[in-house]
Amino acid sequence: MSGFAPHAGIPRKSRVREWLSVLALLAYISVVLLATLSPTPLDQGYQGSIDKVLTVLHRNGVPEWFGYNKLEFSANIFMFIPLGFLITLLLPLKIWWLSIVFCPALSGAIELSQGAFLSARFASWGDVASNSIGALIGIIVAVCLRQLVYQRDEKLIELALWERGRSNQLRIPTS
Fold it and tell me: Across the strands, what pairs with 11?
């Protein structure tokens, strides 16, 4: 009887995906918090390397107007894409939209913490905006993925029911 839901005769829902997602989310949030709440900015001491990256980008077709500020804005967008994605996948389907509230709130809390407690860092509403854009991209991808999986599951269930009905029709009555 283990592995089956009581009284239903159907297998229990596997929680492996959810636990792996929770672990990935916790690990990712830890990385984000370490990066954003470290006492010194991550780019401190790396200006030469950043300039080299920008030079390579410009040499390979990225417009000259794409400088350090645009690079930082883009990095902030990319940093929050996985966060929006993972949170949206973990929330129950009926309340996935809470990720639209949670991600910008987390970004705002990070920026307020930087401004209040970290003298070498500064709070920026631009960072909140870029983080929110990234989270929204991740949220959209997660919602689309959930919809694709739902449609696939509906087709598989329909096919299984059709095959079950067909096999019942092919049985020869024994009485």
Answer: 4
Q: Which residues of the chain have pLDDT under 50?
A: 1
pLDDT tens for 77-127 read: 999 999 999 999 999 989 999 999 999 999 999 999 999 999 888 899 999
Tokens, residue 19: 């636990």
Q: What's residue 1's pLDDT? A: 46
Cα separations (Å) of 32 from 60, 76, 94, 107, 148? 29, 10, 27, 10, 29
Q: Are 128 and 103 in contact (CB under 8 A)?
A: no
Residues, the chain: 175
CA distances from 16 to 6, 30, 154 (A): 20, 21, 22
In degrees rounded to 5, what are phi and psi of residue 4? -120, 145
Which tokens belong to 106? 């987390």
Q: Which residue has tokens 């006492």?
A: 39
Q: Are 138 and 124 in contact (CB under 8 A)?
A: no
Q: Are 85 and 24 in contact (CB under 8 A)?
A: no
- Span between the terminal Cα atoms of the chain, in Å: 32
Give the pLDDT confidence score for residue 71 in this predicted structure. Answer: 94
pTM score of the predicted model:
0.81
Amino acid at 142: A
What is the C-alpha to C-alpha distance for residues 170 and 164, in angstroms, rounded to an integer? 10
**pLDDT at residue 169, rounded to an integer:** 62
The three-class DSSP label of residue 11 is: strand
